Amino acid sequence: MGILRSSRVRVAGFACAGALILLSGACSENAGQTERQTPVEGQTTESGAVLSVSAREYAFVPDRLQVRPGQVAELRLKNDGSKEHSLSVYEDDGYSEPVEGATVATAAPGETEAVSLNPPGGSNELYFRCEIHHEMTGTIEIGPDAAARR
Fold it and tell me: What is the pTM of this model?
């Protein structure tokens, strides 16, 4: 009788463990969602890509981002430095032609600010910089196979 009882306890234990695994998956915040591979830098959202940039004294990390033509992206600036930083996107490397609506508000240390970036047609590359520290610069590559060249 002891062997039969021991087997029942083990089976019940395995059944409980299996049920807990199934329940933990069903209760997770990603339950029922399909994880997608991101074709460009950052995460994919329903509206496009999320491009994340960290500002430190005195550089952006990363300083090179990628997006596909016509893909709207959320551009996030996280200030990991001790000074205020901003980010503005331009069509030219002389920083004289700003991309409409693509200026991130100044972020205080520890804060994150974001803006929607809709790359203008006909551009292969955009340029960004901190408006407070002009030596902080970077580029956004635009191309159909931008992710493939990573």
Answer: 0.66
End-to-end, the C-alpha distance of the chain in Å comes to 64
**For residue 147, what is the DSSP state?**
G
b/e string for 1-18 if b means 16 or more Cβ within 10 A?
eeeeeeeeeeeeeeeeee
- Judging by beta carbons within 10 Å of its beta carbon (0-12, 13-18, 19+), is residue 48 exposed, middle or buried? buried
Please check whether residue 18 lies inside any domain of the structure. no
Q: Which domain holds residue 66?
A: 44-149
Contact at 8 Å (CB) between 77 and 87? yes
CATH of the domain at 134: 2.60.40.420
What would the pLDDT profile of 110-126 be if each residue is shown by its tens digit? 999 999 999 998 889 99
* Residue 68 CB partners (closer than 8 Å, separation 6+): 39, 40, 49, 142, 143, 144, 146, 147
